[in-house]
What we know:
Chain A is an all-alpha fold. In chain A, 68% of the residues lie in helices and 0% in strands.
Amino acid sequence: xxxxxxxxxxxxxxxxxxxxxxxxxxxxxxxxxxxxxxxxxxxxxxxxxxxxxxxxxxxxxxxxxxxxxxxxxxxxxxxxxxxxxxxxxxxxxxxxxxxxxxxxxxxxxxxxxxxxxxxxxxxxxxxxxxxxxxxxxxxxxx
Amino acid sequence: xxxxxxxxxxxxxxxxxxxxxxxxxxxxxxxxxxxxxxxxxxxxxxxxxxxxxxxxxxxxxxxxxxxxxxxxxxxxxxxxxxxxxxxxxxxxxxxxxxxxxxxxxxxxxxxxxxxxxxxxxxxxxxxxxxxxxxxxxxxxxxxxxxxxxxxxxxxxxxxxxxxxxxxxxxxxxxxxxxxxxxxxxxxxxxxxxxxxxxxxxxxxxxxxxxxxxxxxxxxxxxxxxxxxxxxxxxxxxxxxxxxxxxxxxxxxxxxxxxxxxxxxxxxxxxxxxxxxxxxxxxxxx
Lengths: 142, 285
Ligand code: HEM
């Protein structure tokens, strides 16, 4: 039993140290191809969201260009591209929408499809998700 | 009979490929383990079967088989997942004693067991919480062919296993891939997971056993991993070995999963070195 527990703890440790090393290298922004990729990503994402069966209704009155620019700035900022994000905080941006856990996962699935579409590879997709997943608690049921 | 279950799974999938599934992300269903619960090959995870999230539910139908030198194991199961909160399952296991049967004078001897499972997610979310998803599970097991178990000294036909399971997915760790880990504590009296009954001549009390499973998703829908399941002996006639496997699971879509594993059961009921290939198919509807 102790051996198992030690192995478990070592794995957690290994996994955490290893991810820190990666963060010290080139920024995720550069790895995914910088601004051109992010522009294509957000353009594609907004299109998909607008026409999605389950989420489309939320974006009915959304101005595509404004929304796409806000997302671009945010992704650029979060991935280390040095942009400034001047939009609303995540809890303010989604307040009054009462977004639930189902809608959140649908949104993530669409985001992944968009990342695949613009050629972001699997490991960089996961690094993107790692950045945005913790925002869930600020977005749900607001 | 076994082919029937596989046929039904494939038929239902062919009818359902376009149908909607629950909204959870692909892979978060786990696959179906040998007792019919959501998990990996040998052990349950804290996951709830299928893809149902709040106000959703779905069924998972599975068939698994394992061939070792001297034994043939198969399992068919149906489980129901609700709200990403509760899982109810029923599984039928069968173990053909190809080698031992003739030795004990029952040429086509089989061990059979029914497992009724319930699993409740207590707290945490596989992906989104910092801490693991934690679930409490029960497996009520009833041996259907008690003759052989009673011959080797098993005390009871029925037993209940209780387990606490913690499972976590690590986004982008290690090396950008998504790692996963499960750690279980199981209270059980089962002999060879219950196929040889419950309790026996050496021990008749509950024991706490450790189980774990580690691995990575190397693609969105392909997972590699290994399982360890601790075992202890209650019966004097043969010592139980710990069980291990390495597995690869492929989930072409949210309706289908296929698992291939190499399983090492060690010595089982006096026969040493029981290793072999395990195959499992599940359909989610
Ligand atoms: C981590 C995930 C998410 C991120 C990073 C994100 C980011 C953003 C940003 C930057 C804005 C614009 C804020 C502003 O107006 O200043 C926004 C607005 C919005 N988001 Fe999200 N969001 C996320 C998840 C979701 C989900 C899950 C939904 C719904 C299912 C959603 C629906 C909306 C809607 C409807 C708007 C308003 C669009 C409009 O202006 O009409 N978001 N989000």
